[in-house]
Amino acid sequence: MTDFASHFLLSAAVFAGAFVSGLAGFAFSAVAGAILLHVFQPLEAVPLMMACSVGVQAVNLWALRKSIEWRESLALIIGGLVGIPIAVYLLHNADTRTFRIGFGLLVALYAGYTLFRPALTYFRQMESRGRNILVGFGGGLIGGLTAMPGALPTVWCDMHGMSKSRQRGLVQPFIAAMQIFALSLILSRHDLSLKVLFDFAISLPALVAGTALGIWMFRSVNEMTFRRIILIMLLLSGLSLVI
């Protein structure tokens, strides 16, 4: 593959992943990885996707800063920071393939059922820091095993019928913190190669453009449309783990 073709596919993958992440708040790696993992070696693609995903989350946090719920999200983050090291240990000492498939199946079944059920029934809102810490712990643990840290908190928010602004304001800082922590763990074990840094620099225009377009779409869609988008992304992300 020529350098031009490689750079074009890189920009296209990053733009698509950034657009979806700007719109839904998550799923950058699920979308971009579908292309990047066929173009680059995993040792290059994975840290590149993580670096790009952190960049997308930074743009998201800045654009949505007025709706970010830092206090509530802090409880999620504390729980997640405890869950990730446990996930890293399990990855190195146990076979986690069955868990990933099982979790993906549960997420896909929940999203599919919720997407097509005729009536919506939400749980009563429960303001509890302990609950948020527990959900964050599960999100960090699952995220470390499946690269989907936002799946569990997003499902939890959907089950409680949160508005799109509150959901993004609660989950967005959590996802950003988990990705930064995970990237720091990788950097503590391996240095980023110059090629990864070069590819990241090349992808920046596509990253910013895709994220900006996704955020614009997020602000334009109504609550029901946003919810359907979230459920579709959860369905596809869950199926990607199963397949």
Short account of what is shown:
Helices cover 82% and strands 0% of the residues.
Structure description:
The protein has one domain. The protein is built from ten helices and no strands. The chain has helices at residues 3-24, 28-39, 42-63, 70-93, 97-116, 129-146, 151-159, 164-189, 194-220, 223-242. Helix 3 packs antiparallel against helix 8 (164-189), helix 3 (42-63) packs parallel to helix 9 (194-220) and helix 6 (129-146) crosses helix 7. The longest helix is centred in the C-terminal third of the chain and has 27 residues, at 194-220. It is found in: Cell membrane. This is Probable membrane transporter protein. InterPro entries: TM_pro_TauE-like, TSUP. It comes from Bradyrhizobium erythrophlei.
Give the count of structural domains.
1
Count the E strands. 0
Distance between the termini: 27 Å
Helical/strand content category: mainly alpha
The global form is globular
Number of helices: 10
